[in-house]
């Protein structure tokens, strides 16, 4: 065999290996594990069904799924109606689910708004009949609820585990719309919600020296302090400036987290509560998040606005915006305005 023939054979072998590798990757299911509702409308063509499965992250390649269904003769056996499919299933299992409605369980839509705590999420899920409240709260206290891979992705190290957090899962339950079955296990529900957080934050680049967990902690404070998305990066910048200068964050939200019920206005005795979460008496971030931040808060914490502000206070004029100040003297002027606190 001459050198040119060898070269062609090598190139051909590389192309074959690449194609095989690509097919294996595309055929493998996405890493998500959530169960979601999937509706097939009457007279839907299989090409549309495959595209919708891809859009809902059940499959990676509509073309290969279409080819597999044709090869196995399953194309004509799909049934119109609402199906419940588990993400992470292979082609065979998905086509089995789509071919019948007999084994379907009702998927319940649950909306988890941004800014909720573990307790509030437990109450909402319990009310919907998804999970037992006490079981959820108990499971949410344990770091072991997360897999080793999840802990690594979220920057949860031994130092974090040894800190005095109220709930290990606080801030890690991503606010979103979910489809759950009734009477699920708490760890299964939590796993789906933390996986959603990891997925949503995969492409976020942290532009400070924070760990991912510290970024989530800061984002949870921003979530409770900012009512306007356009102010979140500016508020994040205030907190980062104070952290870098060694100043206490003095966030009212960290104190509210310690109260049984939130107050419209904190009293002097409230800001003296002895707790590592109280940023009026402790420097640095609290031990962990105080709520579940949304994506805009997470992005703000990862990429704070650069400025010289060290203070902010609500305007209380119905705009939900804030006054920002560079000096304490200027800040006092705003806090003394009628209606401010």
UniProtKB/TrEMBL annotation:
Segments crossing the lipid bilayer: 7-25
E.C. no: 4.2.2.29
Annotated compartments: Cell membrane
InterPro entries: MLTG-like
Protein's membrane topology: Single-pass membrane protein
Coiled-coil regions, chain positions: none
Pfam family, one: YceG
Catalyzed reaction equations: a peptidoglycan chain = a peptidoglycan chain with N-acetyl-1,6-anhydromuramyl-[peptide] at the reducing end + a peptidoglycan chain with N-acetylglucosamine at the non-reducing end
Main subcellular location: membrane
Site (Important for catalytic activity): 225
UniProt keyword list: Cell membrane, Cell wall biogenesis/degradation, Lyase, Membrane, Transmembrane, Transmembrane helix
Enzyme class, broadest EC rank: lyase
Biological role: Functions as a peptidoglycan terminase that cleaves nascent peptidoglycan strands endolytically to terminate their elongation.
Family: Belongs to the transglycosylase MltG family.
Record-given protein name: Endolytic murein transglycosylase
Organism of this sequence: Fictibacillus halophilus
């Amino acid at each position: 065999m001459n050198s040119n023939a060898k070269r062609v054979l090598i190139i051909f072998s590389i192309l074959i290996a690449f194609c095989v590798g690509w097919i294996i990757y595309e055929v493998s299911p996405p890493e998500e594990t959530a169960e979601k509702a999937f509706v097939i409308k009457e007279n839907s063509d299989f090409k549309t069904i495959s595209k919708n499965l891809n859009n809902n992250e059940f499959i990676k390649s509509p073309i290969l799924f279409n080819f597999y269904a044709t090869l196995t003769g399953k194309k004509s056996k799909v049934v119109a109606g609402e199906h419940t499919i588990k993400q992470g299933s292979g082609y065979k299992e998905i086509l089995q689910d789509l071919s019948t409605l007999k084994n379907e369980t009702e998927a319940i839509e649950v909306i988890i708004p941004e800014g909720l705590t573990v307790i509030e999420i437990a109450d909402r899920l319990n009310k919907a009949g998804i999970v037992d409240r006490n079981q959820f709260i108990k499971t949410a206290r344990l770091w072991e609820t997360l897999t080793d891979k999840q802990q690594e992705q979220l920057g949860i190290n031994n130092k974090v585990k040894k800190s005095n957090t109220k709930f290990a899962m606080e801030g890690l339950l991503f606010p979103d719309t979910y489809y759950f079955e009734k009477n699920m296990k708490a760890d299964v529900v939590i796993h789906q919600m933390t996986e959603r957080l990891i997925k949503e934050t995969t492409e976020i680049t942290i532009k400070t020296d924070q760990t991912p967990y510290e970024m989530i902690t800061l984002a949870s404070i921003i979530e409770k302090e900012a009512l306007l998305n356009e102010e979140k990066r500016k508020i994040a910048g205030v907190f980062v400036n104070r952290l870098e200068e060694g100043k206490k964050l003095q966030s009212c939200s960290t104190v509210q987290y310690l109260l049984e019920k939130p107050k419209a206005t904190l009293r002097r005795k409230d800001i003296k509560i002895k707790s590592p979460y109280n940023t009026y008496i402790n420097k640095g971030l609290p031990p962990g998040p105080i709520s579940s931040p949304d994506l805009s808060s997470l992005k703000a914490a990862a990429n704070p606005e650069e400025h010289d502000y060290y203070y902010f206070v609500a305007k209380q004029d119905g705009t939900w915006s804030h006054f920002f100040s560079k000096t304490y003297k200027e800040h006092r002027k705003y806090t003394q305005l009628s209606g401010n606190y």
